[in-house]
Amino acid sequence: MIHEVFMPALSSTMTEGKIVSWVKSPGDRVEKGETVVVVESDKADMDVESFYEGYLAVITVPAGESAPVGAAIALLAESEAEIEQVKQQAAQSSQGTAVSTPQKDSVPTPTPGQVEAAPVAAQDTPSPRNGRIVASPRARKLAKELRVDLNSLKGSGPYGRVIAEDVEAAAGKGSTPAATPAATTTAPKPTSTPAPTTPAPRPAPTPAVPVAALGETVPFNTLQNAVVRNMVASLQVPTFHVGYTITTDELDKLYKKIKTKGVTMTALLAKAVAVTLQKHPLVNASCVEQGIQYHSSINIAVAVAMPGGGLITPVLQQADQVDIYSLSRNWKDLVERARLKQLQPEEYSSGTFTLSNLGMFGVDRFDAILPPGQGSILAIGASRPSVVATEEGMMGVRRQMQVNITCDHRIIYGADAAAFLQDLAKLIETDPQSLTL
């Protein structure tokens, strides 16, 4: 029997996925629940696991290519003896004489002979969460032959994947890691073992940023395509903008006191916004077909630029309920995993209110585009010394920042946005210490 591996829908907005790498090669045994392929969705790399066991016979969508959700990307044979038969049927299918490929936007209904795919977050470096690493098929094969333990390596491939060169380098350095069970029966014994040496520390891998030549047209990557779809969808929503000037002297003093404890300014601003939203549930709401959806939690999404283009919005869940120190730790973890494309969908798609901060670039103020499914987004500019008139009628210098909120005018009105900004300013200017409680 032939089992088809389909491109899974890894998020509600995903229409197609790109094959990052095949963990299994044609002819390899596939166990139930074992990772077969790594797929790039809109904003994350996900492992795709098989719900059936068998042998990977044919890969119909190679690494680097994309396929629509629901399309067959590989074929499994139940036994090793059936592999050749599956290959022949796949060749006939390519000529239109065998099983047809599902239509682009249709999600097939699984039958007993089909393989359902279960996505889980891809871990590109050794992780205590699942004890697995992601390596290229050639690297896995070399590791078995050279008796190199993949868990002892730090990958230099895209997003930290272990590649063949990493395995060869580890074997050439003379380290003798323990062999995996599968390698004990097939790996050749080395004739000599050089004296152990201390390997030089390898710098943390960073995703390569493509450099385009002048005059060249570069296609959108998967993340950029997702941003394009979201921005076009946002044009259908009537929005308006309201600006406000906030004095940040007291907030800056607080930040200087607690930044040594790992607190970030992003976490402070997110906490301040979340606490203010408790008084303004309408600004945290969103417009749906049935009316106004008031969310049960305040989840602050913060825009982060991604290497190679595009952006992602990691979400600080229930930011109003979490203490500032835990919130800062959560934020650092989210940013790190976001740039490695290891976030779970709920970690970047569950925001109820978004922050976009360009203050670190010296931007005074800007308008942010409303994300689909949300009612508001706050654009934050740089905090700068400004000459102002004090309450005593004198001139003084105060640090001030410009903020500008974009709202869905179908459910939020100017007075609602203004009242929210007024309360946010009052909290930051007069009582920022309450953010640490």
TrEMBL record:
Residues 172-190 have a biased composition (Low complexity). It holds the Pfam family 2-oxoacid_dh. Residues 2-77 form the Lipoyl-binding domain. Gene3D superfamilies: 2.40.50.100, Chloramphenicol acetyltransferase-like domain, E3-binding domain. Keywords: Acyltransferase, Lipoyl, Pyruvate, Transferase. One of its GO terms (cellular component) is pyruvate dehydrogenase complex. Residues 88-138, 172-206 are annotated as: Disordered. It is an enzyme of class 2 (transferase). The keyword Nucleotide-binding does not apply. Residues 191-206 have a biased composition (Pro residues). Residues 134-171 form the Peripheral subunit-binding (PSBD) domain. GO terms for biological process: pyruvate decarboxylation to acetyl-CoA. InterPro entries: 2-oxoA_DH_lipoyl-BS, 2-oxoacid_DH_actylTfrase, Biotin_lipoyl, CAT-like_dom_sf, E2/Pdx1, E3-bd_dom_sf, PSBD, Single_hybrid_motif. SUPFAM superfamilies: CoA-dependent acyltransferases, Peripheral subunit-binding domain of 2-oxo acid dehydrogenase complex, Single hybrid motif. Its EC number is 2.3.1.-. The keyword Disulfide bond does not apply. Residues 88-108 have a biased composition (Polar residues). One of its GO terms (molecular function) is dihydrolipoyllysine-residue acetyltransferase activity. Its cofactor is (R)-lipoate. Belongs to the 2-oxoacid dehydrogenase family. This is Dihydrolipoamide acetyltransferase component of pyruvate dehydrogenase complex.
